[in-house]
């Protein structure tokens, strides 16, 4: 899955809607200090479901909404859309019929938020699952920021294993196994309760 387009509006320094088209090959973003280069990466990370304000260089999630400037009032909502092309055939099977996948995240100042896939409201879990085993996603290796390489080299083997499992396509199955085990445990508890009730009836 390749990022085709990024649409940012009301997010950090991007008060007005900005559309970035990513062409084939390498894209470089250049500009003076503080012009908003890193905010572009923050927007990508946020749209992919980042839940930590700290990882977005803020204190609270509300800090991603345009906070105003000398000439403009603060805005009430941030919206970022990421458009992926599915041409390389590496998207999850259920999305392969679509030429592109559009992810959208919105956040309002009152804390309300929306996630959408192809303009249809969805859960954060749907977005996390969409990225599993693709190498994309907030915990995966598609975003290598300053200091990340050093962090990977100095991380504990279990932490490094997460990246290798993601590259090997194991993450999705581990997550499904975890959910299945939780279901089995729930069913086991239900059966135990049923046994108690039956014991009382007899
Ligand atoms: P450098 O080259 O120094 O790393 P940069 O181009 O990566 O800089 P960013 O860190 O992306 O710059 O952007 C910083 C700018 O974004 C600052 O001017 C800051 O005031 C602005 N900014 C961050 N959050 C908001 C917000 N919520 N509302 C308005 N502006 C914001």
TrEMBL record:
Q: What residues bind ATP, as annotated?
A: 32-39
Query: Where is it located?
Result: Cytoplasm
Query: Quaternary structure per UniProt?
Result: Homodimer.
Q: What does this protein do?
A: Required for chromosome condensation and partitioning.
Q: How does the record comment on the protein's domains?
A: Contains large globular domains required for ATP hydrolysis at each terminus and a third globular domain forming a flexible hinge near the middle of the molecule. These domains are separated by coiled-coil structures.
The record's comment on protein family reads: Belongs to the SMC family.
The protein's name is Chromosome partition protein Smc
State the organism's lineage: Bacteria, Pseudomonadati, Thermodesulfobacteriota, Desulfuromonadia, Geobacterales
The gene name on file is: smc
What part of the full protein is here? Answer: 1 to 202 of 1176
């Amino acid at each position: 899955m390749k990022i085709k387009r990024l649409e940012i509006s009301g997010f950090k320094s991007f008060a007005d809607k900005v559309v970035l088209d990513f062409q084939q090959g390498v894209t470089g973003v250049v500009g003076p200090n503080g012009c908003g280069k890193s905010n572009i990466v923050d927007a990508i990370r946020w749209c992919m479901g980042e839940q930590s304000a700290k990882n977005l260089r803020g204190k609270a999630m509300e800090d991603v909404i345009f906070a105003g400037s000398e000439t403009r009032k603060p805005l009430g909502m941030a919206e970022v859309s990421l458009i992926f092309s599915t041409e390389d055939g590496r998207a999850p099977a259920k999305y392969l019929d679509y030429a592109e996948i559009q992810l959208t995240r919105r956040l309002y100042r009152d804390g309300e938020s929306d996630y959408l896939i192809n303009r249809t409201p969805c859960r954060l879990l749907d977005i996390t699952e969409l990225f599993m085993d693709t190498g994309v996603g907030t915990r995966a290796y598609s975003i290598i920021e300053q200091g990340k390489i050093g962090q990977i080299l100095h991380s504990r083997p279990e932490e490094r294993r997460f990246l290798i499992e993601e590259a090997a396509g194991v993450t999705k199955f581990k997550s499904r196994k975890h959910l299945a085990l939780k279901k089995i445990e729930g069913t086991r508890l239900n059966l135990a309760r049923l046994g108690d009730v039956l014991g009382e009836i007899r």
